[in-house]
Amino acid sequence: MPYSLQKSPIVGLMALTLAVVLPFVPAAAGSAPQTSVAGEAAGLEGHWEGTIEIPGQELKFDIDFSRAGDGWAGDVSIPAQGAQDLPLKDLSLEADQVTFVISGIPGDPTFSGTLSDDGTRISGEFAQGGQTFPFSLTSGVAPADEARGALADVDAIIDAALEDWQTPGMGVAVVVDGEVVLCRGYGLRDRENQLPATARTLFAIGSCTKAFTAFCLATLVDEGLLGWDRPVVEYLPNFQMHDEYATAHLTARDMVTHRSGLPRHDLTWYNNETVTRAELVGRLRYLEPNHDLRERWQYNNLMYLTAGYLIEQLTGKSWEEAVRERALAPLGMERSNFSVEVSQAADDFALPYLEEDDELRRIDFRPITVMGPGGSINSCAEEMANWLIVNLGNGRFADQQLLAAATVKELHTPQMIMPGVPDSPEDSPMSYALGWMTRTWRGHFQVQHGGNIDGFSARVTLFPNDGVGIVMLTNKNADGLIGPMTKTLADRALGLEPREWIGEAAEERDETKAFVEEAEEKKDLFREKKTKPSRPLEAFAGEYQHPGYGVIEIRKEGKTLEMILNGMHMPLEHWHYDVFSVAESDEEVIPENLRAVFLGDVRGNLSLAMALEPHVDPIVFERLPDKRLTDPAFLQRLVGDYEIPGQVITITLQGTLLKLRVGGQPALELEPRGSEEFTIKGLASISLRFVLENDGPASEMLLVQPGGVFTAQRVNEQ
Q: φ, ψ for residue 310 (rounded to 5)?
């Protein structure tokens, strides 16, 4: 796009502040407008790097000069301003005098300089709008070529690290200045069959998907269909959070920057293959926040699910279709997909692995279709390299401008400070942008996001001001190698002094492992081992419901209990009192050591409490009534008149709803509770139980009140 050079509000002088003014297609290398050469043509061809001396700052830029017939072509990139490969015009070399102009920019920004005797330096003045500033250029190796040389030794480093970290396979891509300088697979995608990982091997990228969801939202912003800061309820009229203020004010920006006030609540969706996105969005109103809106950053997958649902409502297409159309297809990411089932049908895909007790074992693929907007994309190093290019290229890929340059910059701009202090004085605290995490790392602005899903780990890292991007994909659960390996490649691609990142991380890994093992040995420290449950195990069996989390089923299996949540069968072992713990299991999806507490009320009715979300009070599941209490055939047996001294109580049935009427008073609705009890709606202190004999009608109705239990005899029909 063309850019105008405007007055800087910081220095008060003419500075290179780039703003989009008209549609523009940057010229590819070697395709800039041709210009004539007067005099001897020597010393320009190649890559040059330089600075413009603006008061108070040095603005870095680079130029690539190339032959174009009898003339010259060239393009200029200014990383700090997000300008890449802007074409040059009026390029002239006469004796040792060099001049050229940035094409398409108002004010004709012009460089006029002198070529040094050895042909390695140009120095002179940059002029625009009547003001001039000194500039200098030095010829050198193109950054992409320099990076290729710096990365020449990484194969051996990666192979050794894979063995030490027990990482089966890895896909790696590195992009510098729009060029792919490294793209290949390492190790094995399938250990059992010794199949190698390649640049085309599909891995799950987990939460790196979030940047694609934010990118898709950004296309809607560019089209005027969405405002980042408009309340979501304007687009989704039925949208509702737990509190009214968040409902009225939550925006798309809030959702994708993790500042909704809602903690993770991940067990509302994890492993749930029957719930829909619309249903989960509807359940948000029942999930307790732990902070006010915009008060604090805290990671939340459900907000990205809601962002994906918003995309569906605005486009009339599924999230998958929208992302395919607006990102994957234009980027040539044809093999990338949204389903582990689709990946397994491909000719080159990685199997998932988990390290446990120093042993690596293969695990099952984890379908997370419902949480697609937060983490379901599968891709490969070869295609993720294109994702790097479009993000480093101001929204441009090949000959298409997929996003406005300013919109891409906004996606990468810090929005919310993340808790925590950096370990190194070279690093800044982390912030969250729109689908990305940001910081300054070793003096370089970094934009990155990690991804972890069962058996896979990923990280996408950008250095926008340096034109450098790195993708790391592995087929190991929570792979600690991803971070130090990214740093190792970044050192080389950025020309930094290398550090032993992998060795340092290995030492920390071993220390942490010993610390965790010691903690696990003490998990029984506060367990009362001589207690037993307050009732027979079968009395705990039944279904328990929370409106946000759905239904948990408790079954008696042999001499213990089993809990089923979202299709996960969790064996329970008695911990103490009426507390049970999820037993250790080979099934990696089960959250081991989760405590389930059965609570009884004054009449002995049960509920179930669990700390499914540690940042709020335990989630309480109310026991669902016995299914026969909503069966019309059974309820019909309870219908009739029951007499207590001086009064007749009439029980009627409407559908599956029992009602109670006393004399001429309005009918009261009865709510089923437990296995055989009903309460009066709005008057929970009084309950009713019916005495049944054989298969006939109820003979008595017991009215249970705090002051006693009153028996009402059934009045026989005449």
A: -60, -45
**Which fold, 627-714?**
Lipocalin (2.40.128)
Where exactly are the structural domains of the chain?
3-140, 150-515, 537-623, 627-714
- Looking at 495-642, list the stretches that DSSP marks H as alpha helix, in order from N- to C-terminal side: 501-521, 632-636
d(CA 114, CA 122): 5
Long-range CB contacts for residues 227-234, cutoff 8 Å, separation at least 24: 227/251, 227/252, 228/252, 228/253, 228/410, 228/434, 229/253, 232/306, 232/310
* Structure confidence by residue, pLDDT tens digits, 486-543: 999 999 999 999 999 999 999 988 888 877 777 777 777 778 888 999 999 999 999 9
| Domain 150-515 CATH class label | alpha beta
Question: Which whole-number Å values give the CA distances from 696 to 636, 640, 641, 693, in the listed order?
Answer: 10, 12, 15, 6
The C-alpha atoms of residue 673 and residue 367 are separated, in whole angstroms, by 36
How far apart (Å, rounded) are the C-alpha atoms in residues 584 and 649? 53
CA dihedral of 155, 158, 161, 166, whole degrees rounded to 10? -110
- Alpha-carbon distance of 399 to 405, in angstroms, equals 14
CA 66, 72, 75 angle in degrees (round to 5)?
A: 60
Backbone angles phi, psi at 331, to 5 degrees: -90, 5
Whole-model pTM? Answer: 0.84
Cβ distance 651 to 658 under 8 Å? yes
- Tell me the per-residue pLDDT of 630-652, one tens digit each, with 9 for 90 and over: 999 999 999 999 999 989 999 99
Contact (Cβ atoms closer than 8 angstroms) between residue 679 and residue 601: no
What does the DSSP assignment read for 480-502? TTHHHHHHHHHHHHHTPPP--HH
> What are the backbone dihedrals phi and psi of residue 460, each rounded to the nearest 5 degrees, phi first?
-115, 125
What's the fold here for domain 3-140? Lipocalin (2.40.128)
Strand runs (DSSP E) across 37-178, as ranges? 46-54, 57-68, 71-78, 83-94, 97-102, 110-115, 121-128, 131-140, 169-176
Element (H, E) at 343: helix 340-344
Tokens of 694: 């054989």
CA distances from 247 to 234, 473, 547 (A): 10, 37, 18
Determine whether domain 537-623 maps to CATH 2.40.128.600: yes
In CATH terms, are 3-140 and 537-623 the same topology?
Answer: yes
